[in-house]
TrEMBL record, chain A:
Protein's UniProt name: Branched-chain amino acid ABC transporter substrate-binding protein
Gene source species: Mesobacillus campisalis
BP-aspect Gene Ontology terms: amino acid transport
Signal peptide: 1-21
CDD domains: PBP1_ABC_HAAT-like
Pfam family, one: Peripla_BP_6
Residues covered by the Leucine-binding protein domain: 47-368
InterPro entries, sorted: BCAA_transport (IPR051010), Leu-bd (IPR028081), Leu_Ile_Val-bd (IPR000709), Peripla_BP_I (IPR028082)
From TrEMBL, chain B:
Keywords: Cell membrane, Membrane, Transmembrane, Transmembrane helix
Primary location recorded for the protein, binned into one broad class: membrane
InterPro entries: ABC_transp_permease (IPR001851), LivM-like (IPR043428)
Organism: Mesobacillus campisalis
Cellular-component GO terms for this entry: plasma membrane
Name of protein: Amino acid ABC transporter
Pfam families: BPD_transp_2
Membrane-spanning parts: 6-29, 36-56, 62-82, 89-107, 151-171, 205-230, 242-267, 279-298
Entry keyword GTP-binding: no
Recorded GO MF terms: branched-chain amino acid transmembrane transporter activity
Presence of the UniProt keyword Transmembrane in the record: yes
Length: 387, 325
């Protein structure tokens, strides 16, 4: 009796192992077949994961990004070269949530590639993990220093501050002949802090005299102390690395105090909300942006009208960047010819001179952005191209 | 099949659950002497930054980094615990909240060391380091039929599971020891406890410091599981979140914070399918629960009820067994 029990046990272990092996093999075969068919039929089907900031205080970013993506998805799938399924997950703006969302997409949903997450802090956590798993990942709104350097599989199509800020500074200096600048920045936010680092470096490179560096905190409402000091020093230009909500209040208070020099802002300052909050005081703000909705370009006009029709409001830069990002993915997918992660990564790295709504776009060796930003200035309560 | 069961996604969520359980306990311990502390996020940050900086700049092994982070948080806990002894209730909560903010602002402004609000990246990852050192001994996860990332998350999970189980075991033992009874006496009535000869100063500082040690420890683990930390992670939102774990689960018994952390960490993941509405439902669940059970979900009565039920069932089952004999 005992012996037979042992045999039964041995047999069941053996058979379960066999079943396991068969299952594993079967799974691989199935996916292989699926890809083969797709390539043969001419339509490449791919699951693209999206990690976005959909709930929480920054949900407006996530909403813009997902609407841009959905619009692009509709158009791309209608064209019929590639079939993209979007799997959208929420990160709530938290690193740990972004990481679990990424794990879910990479391991449970087996996506080919990921778009997102929204914040640079989230990308700092998700990027290395995706790189380790060999899943291509592209940020559409991550502008901080060092994002594409996280790994070979990490890309972005959002213009980094290191490209945008010097561009707007150069133009402003040329126009106004500025020599002395004052810098004002929010030191408790990743975005504004990293913008400040770029500003300081650019100012040093351009041999500008930095009169003073002042800081403020998120949610501050009174900037008179900093502005009084700046006013006393008489700068030609004020560099302000601030998010639009604080930035608009700063400009308002500065103008009331009689500071009428132009402001140069970072990417976070670039929002139509500035004009809404500060009104006339917003005139004279110079920002560099990848996205200019009034551009005289058929693609841009088409996108703006389609977006307005679909969502009832004008697209912002986040929607535009996300829209272009999915088109870049579609192009890479077409060139790769299959929904394989490695083939897709190689094809993505080779995307060059892609002509999207943001302009002419290429990746450099590290997966960072190569393109010329547009410099804008607020005049008479409107964003206009700055020349 | 086995490979599918070991999904890094589930393991990742489980790891966060375990870390949050440790954090929940760090609020429960001071609370068991009647001290409402909101400093746990601050202590957590101290542990995380200490360990991260030591392992990045001095290439210390992670274990030593975590121990150092825990100790620093613990020492800080004693230093904060002594002067705040005379405070109670809301006043203590305000002071500890202030302490947490001081720590966060320190991380933001000490840029030469902490890189300010940009945060520290490139912290050695616990699982990847373990795998790398095992590789040196010629071990290969493929020999177990696992992929690298599966192995990484499996080791992290089991490590955290053992640690959490040990911590729960320790505090359960402590609860029924002399120390635990002293804590309970202080919570019920400080003056009475003092007149019974309990050294209130000692036990209150002990509880506060234990909370700090545990929070610092959890913070250090968090840093090495996430491999990136920034001051915003340890803001007062975090302190409130940890407090909610404990208050929601129940602060009378240790199973309260354990269950609270488990439930509230799992909830946002389980609710993923309703995407942007999930935090609405999450908030609603908390409101309903708190309205129905203000003392927290798990309290002494519930545990006794469960115990007596299982005991009855066992009696029945036992009797049934005897019959068939």
């Amino acid at each position: 009796m005992k012996v037979s029990l042992k045999k039964v046990a041995q047999f069941s272990v053996l058979s379960s192992l066999l079943v396991l092996a068969a299952c594993g093999g079967g799974g691989e075969q199935a996916t292989g077949e699926k890809e083969g068919q797709a390539a043969g039929g001419g339509v490449i089907t791919a699951d693209i994961g999206v990690i976005s900031y959909i709930s929480g205080p920054g949900a407006a970013y996530g909403e813009a990004i997902t609407s841009g993506l959905k619009l692009a998805q509709k158009e791309i799938n209608a064209k019929g070269d590639v079939e993209i399924n979007l799997l959208i997950e929420d990160s709530a703006g938290k690193q740990d949530q972004a990481l679990t969302a990424a794990q879910k997409l990479m391991n449970s949903e087996n996506v080919t590639a990921i778009i997102g997450p929204t914040l640079s802090t989230e990308m700092n956590v998700v990027g290395p993990e995706a790189d380790l798993n060999g899943v291509p990942i592209m940020g559409t709104s991550t502008t901080a220093e060092g994002i594409p350097q996280l790994g070979e599989y990490v890309f972005r199509n959002s213009i980094p501050e290191a490209l945008a800020i010097p561009a707007s500074m150069t133009k402003a200096i040329e126009k106004y002949g500025a020599k002395k600048v004052a810098i004002l920045y929010g030191n408790d936010d990743v975005f504004t802090k990293s913008g400040f680092d770029t500003m300081k470096k650019a100012a040093e490179d351009m041999d500008l005299e930095i009169l003073t560096i002042e800081t403020f905190q998120k949610g501050q409402s009174d900037y008179n102390a900093q502005l009084t000091k700046i006013k006393g020093m008489n700068p030609d230009l004020i560099l302000a690395s601030a998010l639009y909500n604080e930035g608009a209040v700063i400009m308002d208070q500065a103008r009331k105090m009689g500071i009428d020099v132009p402001f140069v802002g970072g990417n976070g300052f670039n929002s139509p909300e500035v004009i809404k909050i500060a009104g006339d005081a917003a005139n004279g703000l110079i920002v560099a942006t990848p996205w200019y909705g009034e551009k005289d370009d058929s693609k841009v006009k088409e996108f703006v009208s389609k977006f307005e029709e679909e969502y009832g409001k004008k697209p912002d830069q986040f929607a535009a960047q996300a829209y272009d990002a999915l088109y870049i993915y579609a192009e890479a997918l077409k060139n790769a010819g299959e929904a394989d992660r490695d083939a897709f990564r190689d094809a993505l790295a080779q995307v060059k001179d892609f002509n999207g709504i943001l302009g002419n776009f290429s990746f450099d060796d590290e997966g960072d952005v190569v393109m010329d930003p547009t410099v804008l200035i607020i005049e008479d309560g409107q964003f206009k191209e700055f020349n | 099949m086995l490979a599918e069961l070991i999904n890094p996604y589930y393991l990742q969520v489980a790891s966060f659950v375990l870390i949050n359980i440790i954090l929940g306990i760090s609020v429960y311990i001071p609370l068991s002497t009647g001290q409402l502390s909101l400093a746990s996020a601050g202590f957590m940050g101290m542990g995380a930054y200490t360990s991260a900086l030591l392992t990045i700049h001095f290439e210390l092994p992670i274990v030593l980094g975590i121990i150092a982070g825990t100790l620093v948080a613990g020492i800080m806990g004693v230093l904060i615990g002594i002067p705040t002894l005379r405070l109670q209730g809301v006043y203590l909560a305000i002071v500890t909240l202030g302490f947490g903010e001081v720590i966060r602002v320190l991380f933001v402004n000490w840029e030469s060391l902490t890189k300010g609000s940009v945060g520290l990246s490139g912290i050695p990852h616990m699982g990847r380091e373990i795998l790398a050192s095992l590789r040196e001994f010629g071990f290969n996860p493929q020999s177990l039929g696992l992929q690298n990332n599966q192995f990484i998350f499996l080791t992290i999970f089991f490590l955290l599971l053992v640690i959490t189980a040990f911590i729960i075991w320790f505090f359960r033992r402590q609860h029924s020891s002399r120390v635990g009874r002293a804590f309970a006496a202080i919570k019920l009535d400080e003056k009475a406890a003092e007149s019974m000869g309990i050294n209130i100063t000692y036990y209150k500082v002990l509880a506060f410091a234990q909370g700090a040690v545990i929070a610092g420890f959890a913070g250090a683990l968090y840093a090495h599981v996430l491999a990136y930390i920034s001051p915003a992670d340890f803001a007062y939102h975090r302190a409130v979140e940890i407090l909610v774990f404990t208050v929601f689960g129940g602060s009378e018994v240790i199973w309260g914070p354990v269950f609270g952390s488990l439930f509230l960490t799992l909830m946002p993941e389980v609710l993923r399918f309703i995407s942007e509405y999930r935090y609405m439902l999450y908030g609603l669940i908390i409101i309903i629960m708190m309205a129905v059970r203000p003392q927290g979900l798990i309290d002494v009565h519930l545990l006794e009820l469960l115990k007596s039920k299982t005991a009855k069932r066992r009696q029945k089952y036992g009797a049934g067994n005897q019959k068939s004999m």
